[in-house]
Amino acid sequence: MTGPATPAASLDVAVMRACAERLLSQDVEKLPSGEVEKLTLRLRGHVGLIVREIEPAALALPEDSVPRICALNCVGEARLRLSAEPGRSLPALMAQARGLARFARALCDHYEDDEYQCRSGPEQAAYLRLLMHCPGCRDCRAVDDDGKAVGACATGDRLYKEYRLARRGSVLSREEAPWESEV
After folding, report:
1. What are 109-129's pLDDT values in tens digits?
2. Partners of residue 149 on adjacent β-strands
3. What is the pTM of this model?
């Protein structure tokens, strides 16, 4: 999604990619927590900017366009991650930073390529159902002091299991997935 002309200082995709790759590297765990926080804050700023560029460009695409759906899913997931409270412990902060970094890379791909498409098929359908439910569910969003999920949402658990199985290419039987007839 080649975005509208943006001043170079406000949106630098190369810097955004470098920041995301740094947070996803193996040696990031050796960094002091202050440096991880600094990288995460920088990435959050970049993601906030790129989301504002991608969303209008995606909305301009035809409604049934796969690149539009993929881009809007990435925008929704990025917003969800941006709205999460920062982790209080280093492991929680690292997990959040890495999750945001993965979506930052996908957003860069959408920004640079009008035809970029995320995964499709059953995995995408399962992901969409999960994405439609969890952001609005109080139980799904509940976390403890370490940033770990503590919610007990049966629907969220079921949708996540369906998504995990779809990622592995597994198919549930009707007995295991009675909700399939509802969707």
Report:
1. 888 876 666 655 676 677 777
2. 143
3. 0.60
